[in-house]
Design a protein that fits this description.
The chain has 187 residues and is α+β, with helices and mostly antiparallel strands. 35% of the residues lie in helices and 35% in strands. It has four helices and nine strands. Strand 4 and strand 5 form a beta hairpin.
């Protein structure tokens, strides 16, 4: 009985030390982590990236690289959150987005989403392909999300796919020709 009490005390002490140590440590994000965030957002593998550049600024990193589909440039905070992204397709068409989105744009998106929900709950073949690409990029299935919307911006030839997962609104830009996810924003 004495051995069991000592062993249990040791396990409790070890657990307490472990939890205390975890609470005091700060998360350190490396340049490799930042590059991984950018590559993941661009849906590009390490082999697909060339001309990689990472520059550390005071409050963020600037990451740029080229792929076969175009050039990417990111401004990523020291916390690992994408603040700004620019994408230039190989055919010289530039797309950029900034996060966090201003309140005005959020209101516009809410209004558009409500209109989309009222107008239709079914999607054509291309819209469904864009939705599938956005969900695959997020590692989700259509059954995992709610409030799915999809609209084509004919000027940029991109689909804007919106969905809610665990009460978090997600917006993805998907190339209409290749169904490649160009960007994704949560919040």
């Amino acid at each position: 009985m004495v051995k069991r009490r000592k062993r249990n005390s040791f396990i409790i002490l070890a657990s307490t030390l472990l939890l205390t140590g975890c609470g005091n440590s700060e998360l350190e994000i490396t340049q490799n982590d930042i590059l991984e965030v950018a590559r993941d957002d661009a849906n590009a593998t390490k082999k697909e990236c060339s001309n990689v550049s990472i520059q550390e600024e005071k409050k963020y990193y600037t990451v740029s690289f080229d792929t076969t589909t175009g050039s990417y440039e990111y401004k990523i905070g020291k916390d690992g959150i994408i603040q700004e992204r620019n994408y230039k397709k190989s055919n010289s068409e530039e797309v950029s987005s900034t996060a966090p989105v201003e309140e005005e744009k959020k209101e516009e998106t809410k209004t558009e989403t409500k209109k989309e929900k009222k107008e239709s709950t079914s999607f054509d073949e291309n819209q469904q392909a864009a939705i599938d690409a956005a969900l695959a990029n997020a590692g989700l299935g259509q059954e995992d999300v709610t409030d799915i919307g999809c609209a084509l911006d004919e000027a940029t030839q991109q689909y804007t796919v919106t969905f809610t997962f665990q009460d978090i609104k997600n917006t993805c830009m998907v190339d209409a020709a290749t169904f490649t996810v160009l960007s994704s924003i949560q919040g």
